[in-house]
Amino acid sequence: MTDAPNIDFDKEMVGTVAVTERDALDLAALTAWFEANVEGFAGPISYTKFKGGQSNPTYRIDTPAQSYVLRRQPFGKLLPSAHAVDREYTAMTGLFPTGFPVPRTYGLCEDPEVIGSKFFVMSMADGRSLWNGALPGLTPEERRAHYHALIDTIADLHLNRPDDIGLGDYGKPTDYCARQIARWTKQYKLSETEHMPEMERLIAWLPETIPPQHESSVVHGDYRLDNVIFHKTEPRIIAVLDWELSTLGDPVADFSYLMLNWFQPADGRAGLQGLDLAALGIPTVEEAVERYVARTGYPVPPMDWYFAYNLFRLAGIMQGIKKRVIDGTASSAHAQAMSERVRPLVERAYEFALSAGMKA
Description:
This protein is of the alpha+beta class. The chain contains 12 helices and 11 strands.
């Protein structure tokens, strides 16, 4: 079993902290906006900030009768498509009436003058945030039930027809993997720090071997254990969060991204590699795929290709971090550790590509 570092992510990332001056909001302006836009609102407001590692700062807004969540863009100048709180709002607003577990949205403010950045307000999901994929403290039966909920929920997302829920124009429905491969190839090349023959082979091979996209659906883009909220006592997901990377695309690419956790080190976060899954009660990759296929009715996907693709995509993301570490613009210990994952990710992607039929 893999040794995990002494980091308790459940303590580090779960809950709220007092708002610092840097993250402070204009409560008078915010109260006026709530009064004009949020049905049933009655102040006064008090607020704290969620710990988590969100790219969009997120606050708990408390009133005498109700609690809300406010999610905003970072203050200051942003890249044009980054920190897309408006996309998050659109995705959740479309999905909520279907019964899919997302918070209810109350309003989107696109005027940065109100609090200093765009923001939206949603209901608060009062449940459990879980960060450690081994789910310590649960029985094997409970762990299995939680993982079944994780698999079933993403399958249910993919069964929603975008046109039926007002999200038909939420993205380009076809050629998702081709566009992703092109994007991350470009990003990788812009931040390349060493020549890796395996990466060059993947860059050449992946675009030529993309499986047919069986269906087009809303894809979350970052669906994993710590982006969902479970019911306080039941193995049931009450909210899927963090829709910043959502779009229309290939649902199997989305599902296989979740499955990457089975190949990531068990470091106290979502990774499961090296754990005794049978003893823990956690489904194997094969069992998880079988459950997803049974629920969606999709044909059994070529998972080795999708694993190669997703690890390649992850390597492209990590390579950008590595370049920033080398350039001295991302000097944290966490960034350094992440940057060291590039080569192992590429090597693992290469192994999956060989399994999927790539010639060495």
